[in-house]
Specification:
Length: 287
């Protein structure tokens, strides 16, 4: 994970690799200009091995560069860390999606209807806005059929503590219901329209830092839609999650992003209720 001295570490590694490369080149040139060494067969073997080792070092260095730049464990209580997170373009929606709550008045209901139209079935609510399940098309061999589970959770004053508590609650529910409704793939969509950008970014740190893996075959993928700031946050590091799960979550994120983008046309920012998919399902009031 990237820390305060990440740039210094990368520069120092680059200098070391460069010096080794230059030194190896000069030694090879010197050896080729020395008659006593030029015709020795072992010289070529030594330099071949040295070049291979140097190439491996360069490969490791490049991997470290991409890893350090791409992955950072953001600290919710550190202003500099939160500022870096807020500047990351990958989480930004276009500018017209700022203050999205002003154009999308029924976001929670519309989002739930959207998933219900996609075949998700509501199961329960409290303490979430809704919990949905969708049966997977794989044989169960006499056991309870596998399902995908989706939580939708809105909070007007979201912060990192609420995010952590909610994720812990999801983890307990997933484990508790595994015998009756096993769900290896789980996702939760956090929604907030809070105007305090610092608190929202702090909450987003809990999303971005989350590693998603619960057990060997079970995972939980959080998403955060920041209506006021026009951002969609998601975990950066999903390497611990199984590849099929990663592909499922990637598609789910794209699906959610497309749906959010439909709420504000490119030409004009609508102030009336946006057009969304409708059905004859009456969304029950939250108790």
């Amino acid at each position: 994970m990237r820390g305060r001295g990440w740039a210094r570490d990368i520069i120092s590694h680059f200098v070391i690799v460069s010096l080794l490369g230059v030194g190896l080149f000069l030694l090879h040139k010197k050896a080729m200009n020395t008659p006593e060494l030029k015709d020795e067969s072992w010289i070529s073997t030594v330099f071949t091995i040295a070049i291979i080792l140097l190439a491996l070092m360069v490969f490791v260095f490049i991997g470290q560069v991409f890893t350090r730049v791409r992955l950072e464990r953001f600290r919710p209580g550190n202003a500099e860390s939160l500022a870096r997170l807020e500047r990351m373009r990958r989480f930004h929606l276009p500018e017209r999606y700022r203050k999205l709550q002003e154009a999308w008045h029924d976001a929670r209901q519309d989002l739930c209807r959207f998933y219900i139209n996609k075949g998700w079935i509501p199961t329960e609510r409290k303490p979430f806005d809704i919990i949905l399940q969708r049966r997977r098309r794989i044989p169960s061999f006499g056991r309870e059929p596998y399902v995908d589970r989706l939580f939708v959770f809105y909070h007007p004053m979201l912060n990192v503590l609420i995010v952590d508590q909610t994720l812990n609650l999801c983890e307990r529910l997933i484990k508790r219901s595994y015998k009756t409704a096993p769900a290896p793939r789980n996702a939760i969509v956090f929604l907030t329209d809070m105007s305090n950008s610092e608190e929202v970014t702090s909450a987003a740190a809990g999303i971005v830092n989350y590693l998603c893996r619960l057990e060997k075959k079970t995972s939980l993928y959080p998403l955060l839609v920041d209506f006021n700031g026009g951002r969609l946050y998601y975990p950066i590091d999903t390497t611990l999650v199984r590849k099929p799960h990663r592909m499922f979550y990637f598609k789910a994120r794209l699906e959610l992003t497309r749906f959010v983008r439909l709420q504000v046309p490119k030409e004009t920012r609508q102030t009336s209720r946006p057009r969304t998919e409708r059905m004859n399902y009456r969304y029950p009031p939250r108790k």
